[in-house]
Design a protein that fits this description.
The protein has about 775 residues and is α+β, with helices and mostly antiparallel strands. The chain has four domains: about 110 residues, no CATH class; about 190 residues, no CATH class; about 130 residues, Ubiquitin-like (UB roll) (Roll), CATH 3.10.20; about 220 residues, no CATH class. It is about 25% helix and about 25% strand. The strands form 16 sheets. It has a four-stranded antiparallel beta sheet. Helix 11 packs across helix 12. The relative contact order is 0.05. Keywords: Membrane, Transmembrane, Transmembrane helix. InterPro entries: Glycopeptide_resist_protein, Vancomycin_resist_VanW, YoaR-like_PG-bd. This is VanW family protein. It holds the Pfam family PG_binding_4.
């Protein structure tokens, strides 16, 4: 018998009579002998075995084994003629246990031992399904056809099994068990051999050692070498900027990281400090980068060009040269947003509303013009992407802003203006028909923007004046109500209404006529109430005398006449609640045109004459009337010297431009002043409704100073007999309201100088110098 061609022989099956090995059995004596080939016919060729190049053909229905027919098995060749197929060696530790169940009946002792195959023996699914149980039983041995009749030929019973398929336990490749081994001629895996369409068919081969592992090792080695070279090159260039690299015009190519940062800082620092030129349409301004939160980030700019990277593009830049790169900016967003908001406000161009006006009576329109406003988002984008990367100025995108009054609305208003001045308008009022010419209409007409529209407006007051000027006695003036004293008591007189034209009604009528086809405007006279009505005065409650005071007159008639004129002007003066009475305002102007004359006055302590002399007595008398009425003292000043006709410390003087006498009506009622001269005295009364209770007192005189005669040789000297000596005095006043609550508690102290007599001569015992005496 020939030897197997393997380098390591497969172990022989155990043939000893151990308990695990079944005893050989002889075939039955009645087994039929194989048929001899018919005369004249060539012997039938043995069935072809499947190979790796040809996948086994699917058996036809006619050729499928049946339950009665013996199962077909592989033929056993002659030991000398049979070729043992090459089976790759299997190491001992890789050999799995063979699962094999011998037939239950006697098998010929001449059975050829199968090669031991590592793996698990399994029948193909098709064979398992097609082979009945009966097919596993031994059949009559059928010798190899070529051995029939040959002496010494062993007869071997065919094994009723399909060639085994070996499946290693775990490893798989692409869903197919690795290491699957089949018996020669079988392809249960479905992979097929060479020439099949299966994607792994080329790896099965013909049983010879494959060259694929060697090729894969070579390719893998090349890849590893190239990867190592690529990584090494990237490490080599990690701290270098690619050659010919420029940032905003600054060349930093080939420099290390630190050198590039220094070079970039030095090159761009001057530009980074310069104010940015900003434009937005036709508007322009400047912006300080630092104040706007913008700065150059030199480290960040260089960082994007250096450092270890596995990017092929980075290595390519080092090999062929870099390119222009925009600088990286450090941006303070909060500060930048505030700066952009300022730009939006400062660069805004306001739209121009359309207008219509009259020039020399001709309507002229001003065209509407769109405005513009900077877009904050777009401005931020421009500043953060173009600054330093591009030279200025930096143009900020703008958005149009439509005017409130568009050109269409302007044109409509112009048409109205032209219609208004197309001719005169006749006003029909009462029995008069004044005509307003186009020039007058143009002067009183204007166009005002209201809710996005130009509305025509006519000046009603000017139209009323135009109508009245073109009529005769059209209007009557109202008579204001006022107080007059009749029978010594205040009464209300006047208060009759007058007639007038309503400015709004006239404007509406004229506008309607001017814009219509009938250019006639009918209007009506309306009642005009007086500014001061009787009802308003009655409500003031002027019903009784609440205070009165009198001072004696002197023997100077001119002075008395001045007081009489003053009393006329004071009488009837109304002081409403909360108002302040001013004596200067009531008497002014104090001149000859108002009935006053020059009389004796004290000017800077000197007795002389002046316009309105004696009116200080009116001030003193009126002050005391208000004092006892409980009114608030606003302003008063006593004389520098005391006159016996006035209460000491409780009197007043006036001087136009410097001194006034004023008090305030703090009651809830109106007050009417009354003054007159009778019985050698000046009288002043206050008419109102009693509201306050007044208590007064005065201290005794103190700090007494006697008078001293004054001698004067001045040409303008006026002799004066003298008056009282000097002293100090304090006056007290308490005012209570109707609830007896103290509302005023005050005191006033005044010091008088001595009222010295004046003699217009040299002092006694002093003679004038004699200039006639000569020398010796």
């Amino acid at each position: 018998m020939g030897q197997p061609t393997e380098r390591d022989n497969a172990p022989e099956p155990n043939t000893s009579g151990s308990a695990d090995a079944p005893a050989p059995q002889t075939p039955a004596a009645d087994a039929p002998a194989p048929e001899a080939p018919a005369a004249g016919k060539p012997p039938a060729e043995p069935p072809a075995e499947p190979s790796a190049a040809e996948p086994p053909a699917e058996p036809s229905a006619a050729s499928k084994p049946s339950a009665e027919a013996p199962a077909a098995g592989p033929s056993v060749l002659d030991p000398e003629e049979a070729e043992v197929p090459y089976v790759p060696p299997v190491r001992a530790y890789e050999r799995p246990r063979i699962s094999y169940r011998p037939p239950t009946e006697t098998v010929s002792p001449a059975t050829q031992a199968l090669p031991v195959v590592v793996g698990q023996v399994a029948m193909p699914a098709s064979a398992q399904r097609a082979t009945p149980v009966a097919a596993t039983r031994p059949t009559t041995p059928t010798p190899y056809p070529g051995a029939v009749g040959r002496p010494g030929a062993d007869e071997t019973t065919r094994l009723p099994v399909t060639p085994p398929v070996v499946h290693p336990p775990a490893a798989t490749f692409a869903g197919t068990p690795l290491g699957t081994v089949t018996a020669p001629g079988a392809d249960p895996s479905g992979l097929g051999g060479a020439g099949t369409d299966h994607p792994l068919g080329g790896l099965v081969g013909d049983g010879q050692p494959s060259r694929a592992p060697r090729a894969l090792l070579m390719v893998g080695g090349v890849v590893v070498v190239l990867a190592g070279l690529f990584t090494g090159a990237q490490w080599f260039y990690a701290d270098k900027v690619p050659a010919d690299t420029h940032v905003a015009g600054v060349d930093i190519g080939g420099l290390s990281t630190a050198e590039a940062v220094d070079q970039l800082t030095a090159g761009l620092a001057p530009r980074a400090r310069e104010p940015m030129q900003i434009t937005a349409g036709e508007a322009q301004t400047t912006l300080d980068p630092a104040a706007a939160g913008l700065a150059l980030d030199a480290e960040g700019t260089v960082a994007q060009l250096t450092g270890f990277s596995m990017s092929p593009g980075r290595l390519w830049s080092h090999l062929v040269g870099g390119t222009d790169v925009d600088p990286v900016l450090a941006v303070d967003r909060t500060v930048l947003d505030e700066a952009v908001a300022g730009l939006v406000e400062g660069l805004a161009v306001a739209p121009v509303d359309g207008t219509v006006a009259f020039t020399d009576g001709v309507p002229v329109a001003t065209p509407a013009v769109d405005g513009s406003m900077v877009s904050a988002e777009a401005a931020t984008e421009v500043l953060t992407t173009q600054w330093l990367a591009q030279p200025g100025p930096y143009d900020l995108p703008t958005e149009p802003v439509a005017p409130e009054i568009t050109q269409e609305e302007t044109d409509a208003a112009l048409a109205k203006a032209q219609q208004i001045v197309a001719g005169p308008v006749t006003v029909q009022v009462g029995d008069q028909h004044p005509e307003l010419p186009a020039e007058t209409l143009a002067a009183v007409t204007s166009f005002q923007p209201v809710d996005g529209d130009l509305q025509v407006t006519l000046d009603g007051a000017a139209l009323v004046t135009g109508v009245v000027d073109r009529t005769m006695d059209l209007l009557t003036e109202p008579d204001d109500a006022h107080f007059e004293f009749q029978g010594g008591r205040p009464v209300i007189v006047g208060g009759e209404p007058g007639t007038t034209l309503d400015p709004a009604a006239v404007a509406t009528a004229v506008q309607t006529a001017a814009l219509g086809t009938d250019r006639t405007a009918p209007v009506e006279l309306v009642q005009r109430d007086p500014d001061q009505t009787r009802a308003a005065l009655e409500a003031l409650g002027v019903t009784e005398v609440v205070s009165t005071f009198s001072t004696p007159l002197t023997r100077e008639p001119v002075r008395t006449e001045n007081l009489r004129r003053g009393a006329e002007l004071v009488t009837g003066t109304l002081i409403r609640p909360g108002e302040t009475f001013s004596l200067i305002d009531t008497l002014s102007p104090i001149d000859a045109s108002n009935g006053f004359r020059a009389a004796g006055v004290i000017n800077n302590g000197i007795h002389t004459e002046g316009m309105g002399g004696g009116l200080s007595q009116m001030a003193t008398t009126t002050y005391n009337a208000g004092f006892f009425a409980g009114f608030e003292d606003v302003e008063h000043r006593p004389h520098t010297v005391h006159f016996q006709r006035y209460p000491a410390g409780r009197e007043a003087t006036i001087f136009v431009g410097s001194l006034d006498m004023r008090f305030k009506n703090t009651s809830p009622y109106g007050a009417v002043m009354q003054s007159w001269i009778s019985d050698g005295q000046l009288h002043v009364q206050v008419w109102s409704t009693k509201h306050f209770r007044v208590e007064t007192s005065a201290s005794s005189r103190r700090n007494l100073a006697p008078t001293t005669t004054v001698y004067s040789t001045n040409a303008n000297c006026a002799a004066y007999p003298g008056g009282e000596g000097g002293f100090s005095i304090t006056n007290y006043r308490k005012v209570y309201d109707p609830a007896d609550t103290l509302v005023i508690d005050e005191s006033y102290t005044w010091t008088y100088r001595p009222d010295n007599p004046v003699v217009c001569s040299a002092p006694p015992g002093q003679e004038p110098a004699d200039d006639s005496a000569g020398g010796q």
